[in-house]
DNA sequence: AATGAATGAGGGTTCATTCAT
DNA sequence: GATGAATGAACCCTCATTCAT
């Protein structure tokens, strides 16, 4: 990569970072190209030179965001933590970014998700999912997970927790009940049957 | 209420219904006052005569929606169903409306929720919450809920399930794992300890 | 037509007149909605309230223009002038408007003309064409037109003359050769055979 | 011309050809410098290095086009065809290029034509016009043209035919009346007086 | 000489809101 | 009270042109 390309990449990054931070805070609709340009310290047209439309930019920002978010997880999966510890972190670990995400950005995120031929699905299937399955099997072997429950269901269950924990509107009321939620996660509402 | 007022109320209702249906389908941002006026068969200015701004209208629509949605629950609480059955229905019952709700409407819903002095909070505290608490205590007495877990946490847990079930982007993949999710809800990932 | 509608029609007319004069002078592309709004003394949005887009406006202006231009002809056809006189006037009569028409307006005019289901074609077939045919038959009966030549060809020939005379870029050089052109029109390049 | 200059000339040609083809198809206004650069496989700035602005480029393209178009005629004038045959060809010969010319290009062509100190006028006066005059005189001598008609008028007449034949919007309806039009050209609407 | 990158100015269009009847 | 008409502000996007390498 020569000097030209490097500068080009850097500019693209500037724009992505500016867009991402604004999208996360205000959502995609409320943020205008002009604002992104201002924060990225480029002209509006420069943005159009790199990303052909606002829609395409949003898409690229989502991809950028996923890469960024995933890298936080990769470490965790490869760590030496025990199974319950890993799971707890997955659920409660607040990605600093994700935690303040705005609903309208989330919405576009999801729209991208539901569309066919999308990047997220692919990324998910090839990188994220295998890691999770691996973790679940580990959990089943070690007796932490009821083996009669399908991996799909567990994944779903974990993701539900995880996403819900990260919803900005409920983050505040979360702390006092963390302990209880952990219990609920592991033993459900019936609770641990200690006999 | 005389004839005048009745007509007035009917017009307001027309507007609310029109706005609600559009908001649910397209979100609040993408729906213009002009469109609402058209569907409600009213002039734009009439809307402004009743609701001083679009923001206020959205607020009123949310309130209207909550009343509508709550009435579906009230029946359930007063029914003769067993505790587990009630809980299952709460979680899995798809409110036909809620199921197709658009993210941007949801977003405004949540914004309203997080603001102070809001209607939802109040409504929730005075009408919804007590019913839930009552249900949980019933569940604890009957041995269906671990009594060491706080009602706040259980409420949170239930709502998480409920809301997640209703997310339009995942509704499709839900059916095959309903059984497992029910198990997870009651016994967590560790599963029922039958010995 | 009540007061409302009358004012509405008047505003529409204001806009059409403003747009027409600008289009004729500068062409359709170079004229912005902002300029039309300014000359018509309305806001840009008002234009959009009446005409849903610039394209639609151009279309309506063309229709308006045709009606206007045609009314100049109707008189001529019904007059008591002799056949040669009528024909001469058709060819050389400078519609004050048409004479200064800008090429880009002409272009859109023609685009409208070539599209299917267009107004011009219909107008032409139902109003203009019959009048011309009538005139040609009159000319043939009176010995002014070679009866072996089809009406289509004559129409074509006349229109060619007419349109060409009105081309702004050549109007200036026209006057000194009017006489000769008349001869050419009636007798072709071979000239009158006076034996 | 050394190697450098040759390459330079070749690049200029690339640009002219690219611009011409785009202008003919889409008109001058709708074609952006970026598109020309792309088709010519050159950077935008290179275009500015050779032609100082878009307007200047358009001018040069017009000159280029005229040279190209004229060469088609030169052959015809020098051929051994009879006078009537030559004239017919001039009128009906469809220059493949000219036939699909876009109105906006034509417009700029004409604008250039009407401006003073222009190339077209000069070219016309010095190269094209003399050839036509020569032809007309030949026609008059051979009895094909009424000698009482000025050369200006005949030229005008011919050009009118020629240009009108080439108008894309009427080319289709032309074929069936070619015969009649030829008659009209030679004998006018009164027709040949054979006795 | 040639290029990729960057830009100011402007265009069409939409929208929530207000005016005037 | 209800409406059609009108608007200023903003938005996304394009373009001819210049800058910097």
**Structural class, from secondary structure content of chain A?**
mainly alpha
Overall geometric form of chain A: elongated
Uncertain residue segments of chain A: none
Calculate the mean pLDDT score of chain A and round it.
81
Number of domains of chain A: 1
* Tally of DSSP helical segments of chain A: 10
Task: Tell me which protein chains meet in the greatest interface and how many residues each side has.
Answer: A-B, 47 and 46 residues
Percentage of residues in DSSP E strands of chain A: under 5%
The gyration radius over C-alpha positions of chain A equals 20 Å
Q: Tally of extended strands of chain A? A: 0
Amount of helix of chain A = over 70%
Determine and state the CATH class of chain A.
Answer: Mainly Alpha
Oligomer: homotetramer
CATH architecture of chain A: Orthogonal Bundle
For the sheet with most strands of chain A, the description reads: none
Q: Give the CA-CA distance, first to last residue of chain A.
A: 65 Å
Helix-strand string of chain A: HHHHHHHHHH
Instruction: Give the CATH topology of chain A.
Output: Tetracycline Repressor, domain 2
By CATH, the superfamily of chain A comes out as Tetracycline Repressor, domain 2
Word description of this protein:
The structure is a homotetramer of 195-residue chains. With 195 residues, chain A is an all-alpha fold. In chain A, 71% of the residues lie in helices and 0% in strands. Chain A has a single domain, classed as Tetracycline Repressor, domain 2, CATH 1.10.357. Chain A is built from ten helices and no strands. The longest helix of chain A is centred in the middle third of the chain and has 25 residues, at 54-78. Chain A has helices at 3-26, 33-40, 44-50, 54-78, 83-92, 96-99, 103-114, 119-141, 151-165, 178-187. The interface between A and B is large, with 47 and 46 residues. Chain A binds a DNA duplex (21 and 21 nucleotides) through residues 3-4, 7-8, 11, 32-34, 42-46, 48-49, 53-54.
